[in-house]
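ligand=acetoacetyl-coenzyme A
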Amino acid sequence: MDPVTRLGVVGCGLMGSGIAEVAARSGIDVRVAEATHDAVEAGRRRLTASLDRGVRRGKLSEEQRDQTLGRLSFTRDLGDMADRQFVVEAVAENRDIKTGVLRDLDKAIEDPTAVLATNTSSIPVVDLAVVTERPERVIGLHFFNPVPVQQLVEVIPSLVTGADTVRRTRGFAEQLGKQAIQAPDRSGFVVNALLVPYLLSAVRMVESGSARPDDIDRGMELGCAHPMGPLRLLDLIGLDTAQAVAESMYEEYKEPLYAPPALLRRMVAAGHLGRKSGRGFHTYDS
Ligand code: CAA
């Protein structure tokens, strides 16, 4: 199977920039698309800062950083994805935004065999596949935050994904040095289906006043050896993203355990989004 040499990544937020970084470090030419000039510049800064941090921590040399940056190009025009063999969509966890991007990519990409992968955390892949003219080439490829650190990707074929698309996606994951598991096309797949109810339970504990955020986090860090407690993890994921994921899962299952608690909604409304806004269940220096 031919390795991917020309990758597209749409969206350069937390996830998109991580995916672009890992791919460029693996030697792949990566074109990154963002919607606005400011978003392109923010994405470029995020990627450069992450690579600089890698240099400071001795993970890569200055020369490797520069070579990696040389493999990254940025655009605001999805038409520039025309020559890509594989594209990962990593825009906001919003059904309308994702379907719009997939429709545009489907039109823009010249190679009819190119794979369109979505990094959705919770939207059924088939719902996104059927808006394109190539549903058999659409697949879920779910990365974990921080992408350069977490080994896992979930590969999520929909009911209409072709076997060749699954093979190529697994091959691409291997190219990136990731470990793949195959997950069902059900909202939340494997990991979020287990993780999200746990995170929401921690929010309910704070909401009911039964335990303080620090105690909840330290409890899971020291008692269960989790690298971070549930509220710190929510802050890392972003409370807005967590709310969107919980809403999709609640829409699918109608189970109260997936319903975003009122406290989570209020914090998102207040702009307390976690690390990215400097304040969530904990506070962070910029
Ligand atoms: N980019 C690159 N490397 C990073 C990084 C980043 N953004 N953040 C941390 N690292 C690396 C560091 O360089 C360091 O590497 P070395 O030990 O080799 O030097 C290592 O990770 C540990 O980092 P730190 O010492 O700075 O911090 P830490 O030990 O507290 O670890 C953490 C930070 C990696 C985030 C760790 O706490 C962790 O793994 N937490 C759990 C994260 C998790 O559960 N993610 C899944 C979220 S769910 C999701 O993403 C799915 C969804 O759909 C919502």
